[in-house]
Write a structure and sequence with these properties.
It is a single chain. The protein is α/β, with parallel strands linked by helices and about 375 residues long. It has two domains: about 170 residues, FAD/NAD(P)-binding domain (3-Layer(bba) Sandwich); about 160 residues, 2-Layer Sandwich (D-Amino Acid Oxidase, Chain A, domain 2), CATH 3.30.9. The protein has eight helices and 18 strands. Strands 3, 4, 5, 6, 12, 13, 14, 15 and 16 form a nine-stranded mixed β-sheet that branches. β8 and β9 form a beta hairpin. It is globular, with a radius of gyration of 21 Å. The N and C termini lie far apart (about 50 Å). The C terminus is likely disordered. Bound molecules: flavin-adenine dinucleotide.
Length: about 375
Amino acid sequence: MRAVVLGGGIAGVFTAYFLRRLGFRVVGIGGRLQYPLARLVLTLSMPYEDDVELARRSLEIYSELAEVEGVTSVDILPEGVDLSRLRIPHEVVDTVEGVRLRPGEIAVISRDYLVPVRRVVAELRRELGFIKAHGRLKVVGDAAHVIVNGGRVAGDIVVLAAGHMNRQLAQEAGINLPLVPYDCYAVICLARRRLWNYSIGDYVLGWYGRPAVPPLYIIGNGCGRYCGGVPRGYASRLARLVSQRVGRVIPLAVRAGHCEVGPHGGPLYGKHPHVKNLYVIGGLDGYGGMVGPALAERLAALISGRGFDDAYRLERYADAAAFDPCSIVERHDWRLALKTQYLNTQDAGPRVKKARENGTGFLSRPPDVY
Ligand SMILES: Cc1cc2nc3c(=O)[nH]c(=O)nc-3n(C[C@H](O)[C@H](O)[C@H](O)COP(=O)(O)OP(=O)(O)OC[C@H]3O[C@@H](n4cnc5c(N)ncnc54)[C@H](O)[C@@H]3O)c2cc1C
């Protein structure tokens, strides 16, 4: 069986990798490899067990291919948050050296991993013989193929795995996908030594931070208009917000990156309902490095006839209504669990109760710094 994979990022190369292991002949087509950061963070501290399971499996996959480095994970949350589903080794504290916690806030300390995703993906692309070219998806009747440099590249199956370009490529081929692209931003800054070993998720103020090469530290957040560029004054506003927690950080450079998300705030994979040989993997949004390899493995299993139904199957969302990606909280973000808890439970902590009484507080949208 011959598979054509369009897109050579995490989703595309890992799908190609697992398909080849299952005996497929794979033709990979990948445009420019562009990662905003050399190493991505992989965390197991997420509110949904199925995401944690994917991240755990991805970590195993990466560990076979590259060295991953452990860092201290600091998740800042309001007290009263339901951590009963957090089944990884962790500690709950109310002080963290070098990080200012306010009354009513806690920190969950666990282990995150820095993965050299850019290098892993580049090496796999070489090994799998990806063609460096721009491809177009074409659907004729109920079958898909790819056009590269004016020529037709056909396969028994076609996998669309082009990241934020998925939707546009599908639309140009006359089909729909329940995936929407958006922009998010990262700022490289100078930070105090204490931070260099911390991977921070601040779910109260709404930002993340992770080590780069000392003394550089990366901070980010945001969801903005696709290809809209970095909003004016974004870096200094974000730096001011982060300084409230960790003391002064000095912004040096800012980058916008393109992401994509599904209607449930997470990734999707599966078979397109109207095109008999087309499979899709996308919507990896802000945590594709964490769940991408394991999701690609599931897609390869599905293609080879050994798939199963799970929360990420594209077929479940085929008829989803149009949605605004910036109104959705991503699945890996503890604010989603907080929102559900806030709406559903009576046993919240005092600040959550106060927020509920006031209709404000933690569970409203985090401060917009963009
Ligand atoms: C600033 C920032 C920080 C992030 N930090 C993290 C993190 O710490 N941890 C984490 O897990 N995730 C992180 N992410 C998210 C992660 O980068 C994405 O989820 C992931 O890259 C998505 O993988 P993908 O393969 O679906 O898409 P992409 O990485 O976008 O890859 C798609 C590939 O397809 C190619 N392509 C597109 N169109 C075509 C075409 N027509 N023909 C041929 N090729 C094409 C592109 O050139 C590209 O190489 C971050 C994202 C951003 C923007």
